[in-house]
Input
Amino acid sequence: MIVVRLLRRQLLKLLYRHAPPETRSYKTVRPRCGAHDPWTRGGRSLGDTSRCVKYSDSISVMSTDQVELADLSKQDPEYLDLLRRVLAIQADCEIGGPHLYVDAMLPSAPTQIDQLVVARTAAEEIDHFRKFARLAGDIGVDTAYILSRKNQERYLEAFRGTITTWEDFAVFGFLIDRVGRYQLEEFAGCSYAPLSRLLEHPSRVLDEEAGHIDFGTTRTAEMAAKGGEQKERVQKALNYWYVTGLDMFGRSASARAERYRQWALKRRSNAAAREQYLAEVNPLIESMGLEVPDPLAGRKYL
Output
C-alpha cells in the first residue's frame, strides 16, 4: 500500500508541472464551406483532400487559415463557444480514464510490470489533461472542477463507471483509447493553432496514446488466446466497451458536429469517423478469435 500511495503521489505531481510558452502569430479563421471530408489514412483517400497536406502515414493536416490565442477576440462567437466546449470535453476525457481504473487496478495488477504500466498510463493521461487544461485556461475556461468531478458526472458515458477487472482494463485500452486517438487526430491541422500544434507530428500525446492502445490490444489478444473462462470474460468486456466506444463518436446527424467541421475544428463527420474505426477494429477482434458484437445493440447515439 505504501508503494501505491507513492505512485499516486507521483501522478498528482504531474498536474502542477509547467509547459513551455507557445509561440504566437496573428491570423484569423473563416468557416469552411461545403461538407468535404479532407482526410487520408494509409495513403488511401477517404474524401476530398484538395486542401490537405499529408505529413504522416495516418494524419493529414488541413491547409487552412489558423488563428492564434492573441487573435481570438476577433473571432465569431460561435467559433469561441465551440472551441471552449471541445477543450473542456477533451480535458474531462483525459482525466476521466485514471479516475476509472487507478484505485482498483493499480494495487491489483497481475504483475509488477503490469502495475507499472497502469501507473505510467495514468501519469500520461494526467499529463494530457494538464496540456488541454492549459489550452482551455488560456481562453478563459476553468477546468479545475473536473479534477474532483464524480465519475457519473463525466461528459461521456464511457467514463461514468469504474474498472475493476483486468479484462476491462485491457479492452478499454484496446477500444476506448483507440476512439480517443481518433478524436485527437481531428485536432491536427485544425483552425486553432495552439491546439493543432499539440497534435501535429511528432506529437508526444499521440505517441503515448498509441502505447496505451498497443498494450490494451496485446493484453486482450493474450487473454483471449487462453480460451475457456478467460476468453469468455474478455468477450463480455468486449461486448460492453465495443458499443460504448461506438457511442463516443456521437450521433451521425449531429448538427453541432457539422459546425465543428464548418469552422475547421474537426475534419470528419461522426459517421465517417465511426465507419473508419469499425473498419480498423473489427478485423482485429476477429483475429483474436472473438466475436464482433452487434454494432447496433444497446446503442444510444446512432
